[in-house]
Amino acid sequence: MAATVDRISGGRFTLGVGAGWQVNEHQQYGIDLPPTKQLLDRFVEALQVIHGLLRTPKTTFAGDYYQLTDAVCEPKPIQDPLPIMIGAKGEKRMLDVVAEYADQWNTWGLPALIAHKSAVIDRFCAERGRDPKSIARTAQALTVVNGPLPEGLPMPAIGGTPAKLADAIAEYRAAGLDELIIPDGFLGTGAEKLKNMDTVLSLVRS
C-alpha cells in the first residue's frame, strides 16, 4: 500500500509508523495489545521487514513475529528510499529505535520537550555512528488562533493570540524542528477555519 500510494502521488508519500499504544482503539476492534516489551520487540521486527520490502529486491527474515522467504514488493516506491516516520517519545528504547530506523521522527510536545527529546536522539545516533541530521524532526501541538487556550487540555497546546503563536513557532525553530504539524481541531469551521489557517501559514512563512 505504501509503495502504491507513493507512485500514485508522484513520490510525495511518507510512511508513518508506531508501536501502538491507544488502549481504547485496540479494545474497540478486538486487537491484541501485548505487554510493552513484546510490543516493542514486534515493532522492531516490523521495521526490519518494512525496510527490506521497500528497499531491497527480496527479503528473507526469520523473526519471532514475522517470517518471510524471498518476499518481494514490486513495483518499488518512486522515492528511494521512501521516507519512514516513526512516532516515539520513550527515551529508554523508542528513541534509539528512531536513531536506527527512522528517516523522520514525530511526537507531541512543546518546544522545550522537543529540544530535549531531539538531544536524546542525537546521543543515540552518535552511539550508532549515524549522522543525526539524517533524521528530520517533526512535532505537533493543539493550536489555537485568536482565542484563549482551553483549560484542562490533556495534550500540549500553543497559541491563543497570533503573537503567542508566532513566539511558539520561533521556539520550535530554535529547537531544530524541521516541520510543525498543525491539528485543526481548534481552528473553527468554514470561513473561520480558512482565515485561521491563513494566519498560521503567514506566521510559519514569516
Characterization of the model:
The chain is an alpha/beta fold and 206 residues long. Helices cover 43% and strands 17% of the residues. The protein is globular. The model has no long low-confidence stretch (mean pLDDT 96).
Give me the count of strands. Answer: 9
Which whole number gives the mean pLDDT? 96
Helical amount: 40-55%
Order of helices and strands: HEHHEEEHEHEEEHEH
Structural class: alpha/beta
Radius of gyration: 19 Å
| Strand-residue proportion | 15-25%
> Number of helical segments?
7
> pLDDT under 50 segments (min length 5)?
none
Largest sheet: 5 strands, parallel
Distance between the termini: 37 Å
> Major sheet: order of its strands?
1-4-5-6-9
**Which overall shape is indicated by the principal axes computed on the Cα atoms?**
globular
Label this structure with key terms.
206 residues, alpha/beta, five-stranded parallel beta sheet, two-stranded antiparallel ribbon, 7 helices
Short description:
The chain is of the alpha/beta class. Helix content is 43%, strand content 17%. The strands form three sheets. A five-stranded parallel beta sheet has the order 1-4-5-6-9, with no helix packed on it. The chain has a two-stranded antiparallel ribbon with strand order 2-3.
